[in-house]
């Protein structure tokens, strides 16, 4: 059932499935408390808290204009009658493990994008289950029966076609895009933003050239490539239905990560440090909740031209956000300073005991700082990751918040924990 097998089956085209749980956190809460079904449910901070954002919300809340990454104050203004709850990541992760087991039973080539989202390459295994359509429908049925949750599924010939198919009939939808012709016919008159890798800044650049839709990209393909260079070629290829990206099999060795794609390319490395601080806080909280420690910190960057860079450092095991942040910033300082599209951090070398060794992390006053960290973790476990904030974190949130307000809809910081597991 491997990717290699799929390439050897008589030249058969690829079969990709994209699965995405619908309003995952809110759906889990409504499943566990039927009184919440059909109610505008907002998961994130509480309205009375000074700062915080919406992690996710039910479709009923979205009807009021509430969206992920929106400030909680704005969400409350739009939906004062909503039900507001702190997230329960332990519960969501348990549901995610069930879901991932179902997805993984149809192929070993699975790229988990988040707790609730993933790509499956079933090119070499679909025939064992009656075909890709049958696999997609079976996944929807099993997820509902075994977890009580709704899952949208898209089947396609590429990653982009599967992703767009999944989004086409949300929530609880199923759709197929099996040829480049079908893809082009579906998206030709849609905004260029529907193309993978085209964010607000690239769309604005294309707009100044009179290129607003996918059809415009196809009709002015040379102008797009001349203006955007290598990235322009990728944009044109995707617009015309060519997508050679492969599903990257998520390693079975455990790791945790968070990454964020900016709606506009970022040139301010000070702002990137603020983002790293907030990512490190959530990752530190996550490993702390699991009672584990990491030995490796990996920084991931995608530049504006889609060039990807990763840097890793391994040393003494830790679960402290300040350690994770310090290492990530050190690696950020060493990379080339060019406009950044995506920034992420992942933790590897996960262990159950904080085995000590010299090297990566500062060991001075370790006992005292670990005692303080344990006390903070106890409070956060009860009241949520935002219950305690350092002065540096508060300032970082303010700076990130100002950028969110400037961009209107805001950056969706954090995506869900577990971009790679």
Mean pLDDT: 82
Portion of residues in beta strands equals 15-25%
**Overall 3D form:** globular
Strand order of the largest sheet: 5-6-1-7-8
Run of helices and strands = HEHEEHHEHEEHEHEHHHHHEHEEHEHH
Cα end-to-end separation = 20 Å
Helix/sheet category: alpha+beta
Total helical segments = 16
Overall helicity = 40-55%
- Compute the CA-based radius of gyration: 22 Å
Q: Care to count the β-strands? A: 12
For the report, how would you describe the main beta sheet? 5 strands, mixed
Unreliable stretches: 1-12, 355-368, 414-421
Main attributes of the structure:
alpha+beta; 16 helices; five-stranded mixed sheet; disordered N terminus; four-stranded antiparallel sheet; 421 residues
Structural topology:
Elements: H1 3-7, E1 16-21, H2 24-32, E2 41-44, E3 54-57, H3 59-62, H4 72-78, E4 83-85, H5 89-104, E5 110-114, E6 117-121, H6 132-147, E7 151-156, H7 159-168, E8 174-177, H8 180-187, H9 200-207, H10 214-219, H11 221-228, H12 230-239, E9 256-266, H13 269-290, E10 294-303, E11 308-318, H14 321-333, E12 340-348, H15 366-383, H16 391-407
Parallel strand pairs: 2-4, 7-8
Antiparallel strand pairs: 1-6, 1-7, 2-3, 5-6, 9-12, 10-11, 10-12
Helix pairs in contact: 5-6, 11-12, 13-14, 13-16
Short description:
Helix content is 42%, strand content 19%. The chain is α+β, with helices and mostly antiparallel strands and 421 residues long.
């Amino acid at each position: 059932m491997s990717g290699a097998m799929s390439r050897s089956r008589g030249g058969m085209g690829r079969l990709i499935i994209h699965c995405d749980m619908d309003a995952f956190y809110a759906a889990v809460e409504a499943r566990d408390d039927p009184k919440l079904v059909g109610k505008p449910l907002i998961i994130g901070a509480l309205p009375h808290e000074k700062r915080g954002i919406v992690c996710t919300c039910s479709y009923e809340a979205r009807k009021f204009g509430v969206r992920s990454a929106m400030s909680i104050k704005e969400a409350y203004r739009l939906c004062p009658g909503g039900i507001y709850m702190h997230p329960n990541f332990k519960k969501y992760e348990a549901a995610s493990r069930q879901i991932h087991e179902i997805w993984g039973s149809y192929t070993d080539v699975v790229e988990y994008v988040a707790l609730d989202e993933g790509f499956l390459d079933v090119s070499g295994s679909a025939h064992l289950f009656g075909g890709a359509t049958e696999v997609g429908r079976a996944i929807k049925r099993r997820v509902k029966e075994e977890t009580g949750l709704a899952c949208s599924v898209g089947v396609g010939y590429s990653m982009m076609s599967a992703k767009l198919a999944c989004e086409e009939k949300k929530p609880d939808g199923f759709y197929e895009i099996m040829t480049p012709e079908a893809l082009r016919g579906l998206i030709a008159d849609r905004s260029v933003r529907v193309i993978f890798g085209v964010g607000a800044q690239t769309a604005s650049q294309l707009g100044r050239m009179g290129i607003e839709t996918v059809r415009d990209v196809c009709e002015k393909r040379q102008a797009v490539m001349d203006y955007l260079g290598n990235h322009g070629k990728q944009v044109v290829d995707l617009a015309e239905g060519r997508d050679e990206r492969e599903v990257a099999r998520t390693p079975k060795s455990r790791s945790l990560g968070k990454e964020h794609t900016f709606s506009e390319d970022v040139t301010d490395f000070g702002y990137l440090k603020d983002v790293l601080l907030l990512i490190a806080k959530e990752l530190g909280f996550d490993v702390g909740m699991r009672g584990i420690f990491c030995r490796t910190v990996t920084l991931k960057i995608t530049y504006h031209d889609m060039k990807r860079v990763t840097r890793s450092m391994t040393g003494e095991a830790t679960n402290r956000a300040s350690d994770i942040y310090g290492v990530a910033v050190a690696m950020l300082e060493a990379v080339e300073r060019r406009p950044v599209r995506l920034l992420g951090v992942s933790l590897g070398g996960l262990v159950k005991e904080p085995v000590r060794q010299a090297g990566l992390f500062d060991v001075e006053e370790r006992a005292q700082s670990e005692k303080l960290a344990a006390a903070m973790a106890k409070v956060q476990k009860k009241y949520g990751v935002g219950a305690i904030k350092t002065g540096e974190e508060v300032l970082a949130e303010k700076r990130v918040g100002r950028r969110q307000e400037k961009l209107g809809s805001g950056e969706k910081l954090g995506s869900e924990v577990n971009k790679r597991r």
